[in-house]
Amino acid sequence: REIIRRKAVQALYKFYLIAPNQVQHIHDKFRKALCDRDAGVMAASLHIYLQMIKENSSGYKDLTGSFVTILKQVVGGKLPIDFNYHSVPAPWLQIQLLR
């Protein structure tokens, strides 16, 4: 089920890229994905937010607290061990969150 949610988030992002005006509800879905209980879904939404923030950084300042909370969870080793790389907790997520 987690992989289905992750793929759904990625598909919604593709729809957003094709026709951003046609997909009005998409930001709510991305925010839900950011708070998903599965770390893979959350990571997929982080990648999407990184791209969207590059386009319009002022529109997402309200998510700063959420990003900091996620970063604390990553650094604290709260993600599944599959996200570790040579005993470092999810280094690619840490870099995305710091950007």
From TrEMBL:
Subcellular location: Endomembrane system
Gene3D superfamilies: Leucine-rich Repeat Variant
Annotated membrane topology: Peripheral membrane protein
SUPFAM superfamilies from the UniProt entry: ARM repeat
GO cellular component: endomembrane system; membrane coat
GO biological process: intracellular protein transport; vesicle-mediated transport
Pfam family, one: Adaptin_N
Domain of life: Eukaryota
Keywords: Membrane, Protein transport, Transport
Primary location group: membrane
Ranges where the Clathrin/coatomer adaptor adaptin-like N-terminal domain occurs: 3-99
Family per similarity comment: Belongs to the adaptor complexes large subunit family.
Protein name (database record): AP4E1 protein
Organism: Thalassarche chlororhynchos (Atlantic yellow-nosed albatross)
